[in-house]
Structure formats: structure tokens, C-alpha cells
Amino acid sequence: MTIQAKEKKSKGSVLVYVLIIVSFSVALAFTINENITKNYESTFSIYYNNQAYLYANSAINIVKTLFELDDDAYDSKEDIWYNIPPIKLKEGILRFDIKPINAKININLLNTEGDTEFALHIIDVVDKIFKEENINSLTPGIIKDWIDKDNEPADYGREDYIYDENNLIYKIKNKPLDTIMELAYIGSFNDYEKLKDYFTTVGEDKKLNINFCSEETLKAYIPDLASYASDFIEYRRNNIYKNKSDITKASYISDDEYVEAVNYLTIKSNLYYIKIIVEFFNNNYTYHILYNRKEQNIDKFIEGYNNDYF
């Protein structure tokens, strides 16, 4: 048996073992809550919410276990935490969607201070994406004024603007975006729909994960390498970037271009966006979790709509 075959067998065994744990945890959650059900016989909505929450917490514990079992020095779409299949529940189903946060661009970097060169870079990146997606109601300056703490208007910004949307009247936040859905309040829901695949609201550094980022995001973030972006993504279809230097295997680039690229690329993440969807008794409950793998800690836990939050 080859080493590769052994690795696949090992990963397959781990996945089977983990799924057994998931099934047990889900069943346990349901059993524990049987007693609670008696207290809510006349209030099923409370019971359903409580049950879905228990399922979500059981699911989070399994994801944590998967991260602990994954000791690779890189993240890829072949990792077991990325490939958890839907789990059948009694009267429902449990679904997972897990992505490294640095698969997208942190839009709060528009408030970058101290690094003038990068600040100008991120403004150009955001402006290019807005133009590419025909976003006319937003500018980088509008977002910057929303998230910065000062009262000085940015170029094409709205520092003293009063928002009046859907019978809601509000001023700028003067704090970073907590979720990417806030773009719907600064611009429109249509803007949010166009931009959610490019941007996140958190990030540990200024680099994109080459194993997960989209071709469009890659082109926008490193415009000097836009002509190579399709080659980088194509290479990923049959290979894993186990080192940043692997981009030289995907396409021929000069030494100067390589240096430029590695400044903005990574193969690893510490922050992950975990979306858990519990379909239960014809109701959908969606939980948005921001998980810090390094600290083994949940930074944020939000029950919300089935949209992207981070």
C-alpha cells in the first residue's frame, strides 16, 4: 500500500469515527432534552429553538475535534473538517458550512492606520470591486467613515450623513463592521449580495488563503498578478498548495512577481467561519460561529438568517 493510500485510509477511518461521535452526540442531545419537552408541551416554538440550539452546540464540539485531529501545516478543501456530510436527525437534518476567514478580504482594513502604502492598496482594491460589481451607492470613503472613529470625512465619504431606510433613521456607526450584513444598512441588500463573497469583517493578517480564495477575490486583491489568477485556481483543482512557493508550479512568474505575491498569500488560517444549519420539524435555524483555532475559543456565536455574516 502506498503512503498516499495509507493517508487516505487513515483520513477515511478518522472521518467514520468522527461521524459516529456526531451521531452519538446528536442522539444524546435529543435524549437529554426529552425531559425538557414535558415542560413545553404547549409552547412548541420554545422547544424547537431549544432543541436546535442543543444540536448546534453538539455540532460545534465535533468541529473542534476535527480541527484537533487535523495537524497539517496548511488548510485545504480535502481536510475532514471541510467535508462533513449532512447528518440526519430525528425529524430533521444538520448541515455544516466551514471556511477559513482569510478566504476573503477584511473590509475593516479600510481603517488601516500607520501603513500608508497598504491603506492606499486596500482603498484601490475595494474601489475596483465596487466598479466590477456595478456598486453605485457605495464608495470606499463611505465604508471608511462608517467604521473609523474620527469626524473627518474621507474622500467621497459621508461623515455626517443621516440614514433613512425602511422607516429607520440612524447615523454612522464609527466602529468596525461586526458582520458583513451591515453593508445592507450602509448601502442596500443588493449591494450586500454582490459583495459578501469578496469581503469578511475580521482577520488575523492581511493575507488571502490561496487554497480557498476565489479567482475574482485574488484578482482584486493582487491586481499585479491578475493574469496568473486563473492558473493559480486551475492548479488547485488537482493539487493542494502545501507551501506558498507552490504558486511557481501553477504558473511561471518572475522573482519580483513572486515576492509581491507571497506578501499577500498564505496557506493557513486561525479563524474560521462555521455556519450550522439545523432543519428541524420544517423549521430552519442557522447559527453563525467565529472560531479561533489557535485559542480553541468561540469568538462569536450568533443565531440569525441563512446569509453570510463573516
Give an account of the 3D structure:
It contains eleven helices and eleven strands. With 310 residues, it is an alpha+beta fold. A hairpin with a 2-residue loop joins strand 1 (87-89) and strand 2 (92-100). The chain is flat and about 55 Å long.
Order of helices and strands: HHHEEEHHEEHHEEHHHHEEEE
Report the strand count. 11
Percent strand equals 15-25%
Residue stretches low in confidence (pLDDT < 50, at least 5 long) are none
Residues in helix, %: 40-55%
Derived structural class: alpha+beta
Shape: flat
* Biggest sheet strand line-up: 1-2-9-10-11
Number of helices: 11
Average pLDDT taken over every residue: 88
Give the termini separation: 42 Å
Largest sheet: 5 strands, antiparallel
The whole-angstrom Rg is 22 Å
Write the layout of secondary structure elements.
Blueprint: H1 3-32, H2 34-38, H3 44-69, E1 87-89, E2 92-100, E3 105-106, H4 116-132, H5 140-147, E4 162-165, E5 168-171, H6 183-186, H7 189-195, E6 199-200, E7 208-209, H8 215-221, H9 229-238, H10 247-250, H11 255-262, E8 265-266, E9 271-280, E10 283-292, E11 297-304
Parallel strand pairs: 3-6, 7-8
Antiparallel strand pairs: 1-2, 2-9, 4-5, 9-10, 10-11
Helix pairs in contact: 1-3, 8-9
Descriptors:
flat; 310 residues; 11 strands; 5-stranded antiparallel beta sheet; alpha+beta
A few lines on this structure:
The protein is α+β, with helices and mostly antiparallel strands.
